[in-house]
Amino acid sequence: MPDAAFDLHMWVTFALIGVAIVAYITERWPLEMVSTSVITALMVFFHFLPFKNAQGEVLLRPDEFLSGFANPAVITIMALLVIGQGLYQTSAFEVPTRRLTGFGARYPWLTFIIIVLTAAAISAFMNNTPVVVIFIPIIATLTLRLRFSPSKILIPLSFLTILGGMTTVIGSSTNLLVADSAARSGLGSIGFFDFFIPGIVLFAVGGLYVLLIAPRLLRARQSMISSIAEGGDGRQFIVQIEIAPDHPLNGKAAISGLFPSLKEMTIRLIQRGEHAYLPPFEDVTLQTGDVIVLAATRSVLAEALKAKNSILASDLTAARTGHDGDAEPSARERGSGEIVLVEAVVAPGSRLIGRAIEQTGFRAQTGCIVLGIQRRSRMLRSRLDKILVEAGDVLLIMGSRDRLHRSRRDHDILVLEASVTELPDARLANRALAIFVATVSAAASGVLPIVVAALTGSVLMVGAGCMNVRQACRAFDFRIYMLIAAGAAMALALEKTSGAYFLAHHVVTTFDGAGVSVVLSALFLLIAILTNLLSNQATALLFTPIAIGVARTANVDPHPFVYAVIFAANCCFATPIGYQTNLLVMGPGHYRFSDFLRAGVPLVLLIWLTFSVFAPWYYGLA
């Protein structure tokens, strides 16, 4: 009976995993619902039919399926997402991405290829997870600037760092685990570059696929970052800039009738005293006291506000303080009221109608400023302080979220919630960068475990004021949380019921006598499949002794079989739960489970076929 019970639990586990994968692929139900259902089904089944050994001891309790919620991988991923949100909120990577934008605008794909290949090269000598953490905010910000979908780039980033990690013994924690297990099995130590040649071949073949084919298989999706940062439908707002002595535009001369510093902005008027200059602007040099009236979209204005020497710096300062001047915001405002841009429609019967913005007392009453105005009926070519507000005008308002919330009690304007755009606080960029570098350095050097380093970094991001608690909570992706928990529960059931060992045993016996190269290929494929369901570390530890035993039985060198375990266990491309870097890019890329299957399954098969052809020839196996 124990054997029958053993078989029953194993086959039910196989069935539940199969149903879960189908449900994830079809996307008929929310990912969170599928994950919760899988965990619940496993708990109910193992409660009513306990899994026991021959002595009657329970080997797998129902409550153990909840261990995934406290899995260090969950804490690590969520903490790293919080750190990434802190970098975004402070525009910490604004300077390097602005430098890349000029080159990227001319050669976008070449720019992204250079970035992901650089990440892949670094991953050969450093754990993959910190590498991806470093490059995600750079790619996300750059794709936003170049109007490029990050969903085309972030999965290739994850895949290439995994491939790069296959080339050296320290390329991933999986490699080190296999090397240690092999050494304990009597094979001796594996050198740093012992499997570099087959590794670089797999990297070259897989890299070509990732760069040339995978982006074509991925659908362009709006990411969470772009959905927050982008805004507007091409409508332009009239904005007024006054040139002060220290203004970045002071002394700038027109070139061919245009001002290069005002990209994607249309200057409607330059007012100098009583004289007005209209376009084109020939032989005009901006000077103190000039008033510039320009037109730009909300997204362009938001980008201008993020710049280090913003042309709208005085407006941003006024929005932070709630009045003109250089006073710093209070500690309460810094902690609770980040600066936002929002559109608001002037309501019929509003007290603003018929008056210029400055005459309305809007700033004094709300603490927010009107950055621009848009009127659909006609093109405006007047100073902002001379335009009389009409019903239906759209005002572009900037201020703290708290002040904006208070202004909603006034029925003079109707705030358009969907238009809210948060403005990063660039003053805290250096602080956020310091926390980020310290976190990555501590994790990469081994001074702290990655989970401890990531959790510490996320706490410091909030504690140092780089973001508030609400912004940190927004980075928490519940889909990923439930997906990791469900993956851990399925892996636990598969491991405890010996389902993985059952599959390995049957593969080896099925292909026994078919030749060493066939057995090696079949073993590689089985490991590559299971590593996308189990954790790659668990898969590597499970199959290393099996691979060594198969090689010794066949009287061949065990090293090619050990290297097969390393390469196959790293083939975690087909599911987001296969590896941490896949989970890291899932949120910023706004990916679905099916995206990893669509791009990852062909890569797994390609790596398997390449290894099956190259390894027997390279190692001289019959």
Characterize the structure shown:
The protein starts with a helix and ends with a helix. The model is unreliable at 1-5, 224-232 and 324-337 (pLDDT under 50). The chain is α+β, with helices and mostly antiparallel strands and 622 residues long. The chain contains 27 helices and ten strands. The chain is elongated. Strand 4 and strand 5 (275-277) form a beta hairpin. It has helices spanning 2-26, 31-48, 72-89, 94-106, 108-123, 128-145, 154-164, 173-184, 196-212, 214-217, 224-229, 298-306, 313-321, 331-336, 357-360, 362-366, 401-407, 429-445, 450-463, 469-475, 478-496, 499-510, 516-530, 536-553, 559-569, 580-586, 593-619, and strands spanning 51-52, 58-60, 236-242, 266-272, 275-277, 291-297, 339-346, 369-374, 394-400, 413-422. The strands form two sheets. An eight-stranded antiparallel beta sheet has the order 5-4-6-3-8-9-7-10. A two-stranded antiparallel sheet has the order 1-2.
Silhouette: elongated
Which class do the helix and strand fractions yield? Answer: alpha+beta
Strand content: 5-15%
Mean pLDDT: 81
Give Rg in angstroms. Answer: 29 Å
Q: Tell me about the biggest sheet?
A: 8 strands, antiparallel
Strand order of the biggest β-sheet: 5-4-6-3-8-9-7-10
Strands, total number = 10
Helix content: 55-70%
* Count of helical regions: 27
CA-CA gap between termini: 43 Å
Please mark out the parts with pLDDT under 50 across 5 or more consecutive residues, or reply none.
Answer: 1-5, 224-232, 324-337
